[in-house]
Design a protein that fits this description.
single chain; 256 residues; alpha/beta; Rossmann fold; 7-stranded parallel sheet; 45% helix; 14% strand; globular; binds nicotinamide-adenine-dinucleotide
């Protein structure tokens, strides 16, 4: 059976678990070969093993680590066609309590990591004359926000700006750059960092009546890296079950 990504090589950063692992799994189903890059070693190795891929331990906020991940894709599979930078952290802290160190850490992983991964992947894609980059942004920052998300919101809004700039600069190399803005997706990270009460509140705010799954995001990522999206660059897809649509709290249709 032929897949939509047959023969493609994908580097997926932040793919040991959660949304990133879902993206890697979906890409492999469509014929891609994958390198899983993450700072979680055991989960990363397990995911790579399950998907017949390779694992490399990296800290996405370190440039040499990003370069090593790109080099592993090229030395193992002979190329790099797709970069997904999905690694992100989301500590919950009110702005009045965010230390300068915590601010720097969130921006270093989420935003600087995005730039560094693109910077590391660019030379290979440029010399090949084609490439696809997809970055995991969020609705939080670009569209909406809630208390405790000051640094996170800034980092994700920054990713959207970077997507536009990179898309423009890389267009002459036939490299597209896009992003996904997930709503609330039930993942290990979400369960570690958010209370059950917060998760229930979010669920109640989703018009489609459920939280998202990693596969919901993976399907959007697949579209953006597939041939079907060859004329799409510099934009993002919101995947949030309609969460950002309501004007107010009372959005459900009630019987007259
Ligand atoms: N879950 C949600 O509701 C949601 C909503 C919007 C956006 N997002 C974004 O989606 C992405 C994935 O979120 P998730 O919920 O799957 O989280 P998760 O914690 O389950 O997975 C994130 C992965 O990134 C890895 N990672 C973290 N820091 C890293 C670093 N410095 N270097 C390399 N790898 C690192 C983690 O080890 C983990 O495997 C993040 O960018 C997050 O901001 C998530």
């Amino acid at each position: 059976m032929s897949g939509r990504l047959d023969g493609r090589v994908a580097l997926i950063i932040g793919a040991a678990r959660g949304i990133g692992a879902g993206i890697a799994e979906r890409f492999v189903e469509e014929g891609a070969r994958v390198v899983i890059a993450d700072n979680l070693v055991q989960a990363g190795e397990e995911t790579a093993h399950r998907l017949n891929g390779r694992f490399i331990k990296i800290d996405v906020s370190n440039f040499e680590d990003n370069q090593a991940a790109v080099a592993l894709a090229v030395s193992t599979f002979g190329s790099l066609d797709i970069l997904v930078q999905n690694a992100g952290i989301y500590p919950w802290t009110l702005i009045e309590n965010i230390s300068p160190e915590e601010w720097d850490q969130v921006l270093a992983v989420n935003l600087k990591g995005t730039f560094l991964s693109a910077r590391a992947a660019l030379p290979v894609m440029k010399s090949k004359g084609s490439g696809r980059m997809v970055f995991t942004s969020s609705i939080t920052g670009p569209r909406v926000t809630s208390p405790g998300h000051g640094h996170y919101s800034a980092s994700k809004a920054g990713i959207n700006g970077f997507i536009k700039a990179a898309a423009l600069e890389f267009s002459s190399y036939n490299i597209t750059v896009n992003g996904i803005e997930p709503g609330n997706i039930l993942t290990d990270g979400m369960q570690e960092h958010r209370s059950a009460a917060f998760i229930k509140m979010m669920e109640e705010g989703v018009p489609l009546g459920r939280l998202g799954t990693p596969r919901d995001i993976a399907n959007a990522a697949l579209f953006l890296v597939s041939d079907d999206a060859s004329y799409i660059t510099g934009t993002t897809i919101i995947v949030d079950g309609g969460q950002t649509l309501p004007e107010g709290k009372d959005f459900r249709l009630t019987p007259p």
